[in-house]
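Need Ribose transport system substrate-binding protein's 3D structure for a figure. Predict it.
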Amino acid sequence: MKHLNIWALLLLLCLGCGNKNKDGQPKQIAIVVSTLNNPWFVFLAESAAEKAKALGYTSKIFDSQNNTALETDHFENAIAAGYDAILFNPTDAEGSVVNATKATDADIPVFCMDREINSRTAATSQILSDSYAACVQLGKLFVGDLDRQGNYAEILGIVSDNNTWNRSKGFHSVVDNFPDLKMVAQQSAEFDRNKAMEVMESILQAHPDIKGVFCGNDAMAMGAYQATVAAGKEDQVKIYGFDGAEDAVNAVKDGKINATAMQFPKLIAEKAATLADAYFKGERNFRKKLPIAVDVVTPKNIDQYIAYGKKN
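Structure prediction for Ribose transport system substrate-binding protein:
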């Protein structure tokens, strides 16, 4: 019986080893996000930190402020400080590859969250919302709401982010099949609310008759809405966003914008932390890309949703 107790104790000690670094301290996870200027990314980062803590790890959130050079500093500091894993929301699909590669070369696993990098080897795994498929659905809704005709505009996100183009391509794969729907303006507002308001103001001045605007994220959709209100055109222009942020969910409920696409940042963040935990425990066979489904949210189904997810 004594031998059995000793083996049980050794087993428990071994199981605990996966949560400790070489100094016997809890393993550290760096959470590097593109920007904390957007509530959606704040929620993503905080969800990752909460899950890491629940799994027995310490973590620290780093804000890259949409600056690849600052992101590079964060990676170099995380590597030098001996972080054991990096949960990563990249600033640039191409420019961020070198940072992920540095970490991987230093035997630090990198798990991308939401945003993609253009490499199949630099990251251990990439957990990505299925933006294209969601925007196909948004495109169908847009076509129906505009009765298949009229001028419209598109406000793009950061042009170096693959999400920008995946969303745009999904939308256009539907809308471009209707020749009486004409895109009269397409401009980037870099996923920023204030920039989107300025862009929308300019679009409305040049094209006062537009019937709709497709925005690459909710922050820009809300900025576009502010511009339509200022121009007295909030009842004329139908607005579509993407993310499922709190203000956009409320705006759909209040009839201010027509729809958004609900990503699930908590699910993405928790999955990334869980994969890091699996890595610490010896797992090495990870899917290079793990798609997460996105729901389209409209006034018809808004009661099923809250900010950043579904009710219950």
